[in-house]
Amino acid sequence: MRNSYNRGFIYRKRFTASAALLFLSFISVHAETLTDALGRTFILNAPATRVVSLSPSVTEILFALEAGGQTVGRTEFCDYPPSAAAIPSVGGFSGATVSVERIARLKPDLVVISADMHERLVSLLEALGISIFAVEPRNFSQVFSCIETLGRLTGREKEARRVVGAMQAQLASVEKSQAVRVKPRVFWLLSDSPFLTSGKNTFVNEIIERAGGINIFADREESWPLVNVEQILLRLPDWILSTTDVSLQNSLNFNQFKNIRKARFNPSLVYRYGPRLSNAVQEVARVLSQ
To answer: Does domain 180-288 have CATH number 3.40.50.300?
Structure first.
């Protein structure tokens, strides 16, 4: 009897050990290793079900992925879609205005941060055992990758492919429609006191180009270079586009710009890297076609 018992005990131990190894093997096979915008390694074992978004762009993406029900926290600037307003706010967009205490109370299994704005929060959140993933796309291609990554993080891969596919189809349609006409020259007005514009490395520059225009300051490497009236006029813009009051009525230089066509756009459409970027291209193309 004792030998039989011992053999059963040994078999149970072996079975338990084998089951544990099988479970660990299953986890390792199904886990996914991702790298975020801060170069940090992130091990994804299961989709996040309680997400805090610290970026208006990320919030838009999550809702487009039908992951709004998984989003439990946002910033006070996350105002699109309007239903996002029902989600508790954890503060402003800058790292200094975000409340780590509010985030912790929401018990998230993932916080999505801006690599540029929120790096200081990483150690504070990690000390509380909260998982963090940083994003900061710089161009349309990286936006598509960001959307697909957020789809993997939330278990919404199919929805991410749908969103990216719709954006790419819309962009292809706009670019095809603008291919045969003369490209208008565009000055993007970020502010007129002083004059700031869009350089090469911005979403705005890519929006202008995809919409069939020429950014007259695309040769500038700075994202938002400082320019003067003479530089603007020497580059012969056909359009002044902006998200601010482009009438320049309050500018001393208004008369110098009075014969240049002007148009204003919704800032959240062109400055956020969400799914509406393709809408921004379509809207700018519509204006430049006039």
So the answer is: no
